[in-house]
Amino acid sequence: MNALDALRRRRSVPSRLLGEPGPTPDQLRAILSEAVRVPDHGKLTPWRFLRIHGPARQALGDLLAARALERDPAAPQAAVDKDRQRFSHAPLILAVIARLTPGHKVPEQEQLLSGGAVCFALLQAAQALGFGAQWLTGWAAYDPVVTARLGLEENEKVLGFIHIGTAAEEAPERQRPDPEQLLGDWTP
Ligand SMILES: Cc1cc2nc3c(=O)[nH]c(=O)nc-3n(C[C@H](O)[C@H](O)[C@H](O)COP(=O)(O)O)c2cc1C
Q1: Is the Cβ–Cβ distance between 50 and 150 less than 8 Å?
Q2: Ranges for the Nitroreductase domain (predicted)?
């Protein structure tokens, strides 16, 4: 498959449809090597990865469930259970963490965008190796208690949890915007 075909066929696989096997250590290395090739103004490397796999997935789910009840003691049981299972489907989750340098001549927006490109590159590399993947955030990515437990520093943000695994079934295609509708000509 050429590169354009691969891009045309790209789509996310919902995390609940992702299971074993996940990437081998060599495949993970290949995926990460691809992801760090993103455009990065000023070579700041304004991102890092956190691997969540094995029993750490359930531990993070338990942490989320406890925090969900702390945030809202009346949270419905079904919602809390969903949070508990959030990281238990895909065998591997890579949290992409932005490491921002405030006040740098490379604006923070560009540092964040570079991290967004990393997230997308992870999806593409995982798909190129035959895996399914999905980029998720959810409330936990923005919750200060959860991010502190993930070990984030003051200048860091979760840009996404990239869930990677083997798709149990083909994901449905979603309707895509018509690019012609989005294209305008600048006229002087
Ligand atoms: C920054 C970001 C965060 C996202 N977070 C969620 C999320 O928390 N829950 C969700 O259902 N989809 C989320 N999505 C959407 C999915 O990643 C994905 O786009 C969607 O499942 C459609 O798949 P596609 O990649 O084939 O368009 C997010 C997308 C982005 C870019």
Answers
A1: yes
A2: 7-165
10 is in an annotated binding site: yes
Domains, the chain: 18-169 (3.40.109.10)
Q: Which helix (H) or strand (E) holds 122?
A: helix 108-128
Is the shortest distance between the CB of 19 and ligand 1 below 6 Å?
Answer: no
The answer to whether the CB of 127 is under 6 A from ligand 1 is no
ipTM score of complex:
0.97
Q: Cα separation of 1 and 15, whole Å?
A: 25
pLDDT in tens, 26-64: 999 999 999 999 999 999 999 999 999 999 999 999 999
Asked which of 83-97, 107-121, 167-181 is least confident by mean pLDDT, the reply is 167-181
Rounded to 10°, the helix 108-128/25-35 angle is 140
Residue 34: which of 112, 110, 111, 128 has the closest Cα? Answer: 128
Q: 0.95 exceeded by the pTM?
A: yes
* CB-CB contact of 113 with 157 (8 Å): no
Amino acid symbol at 65: A
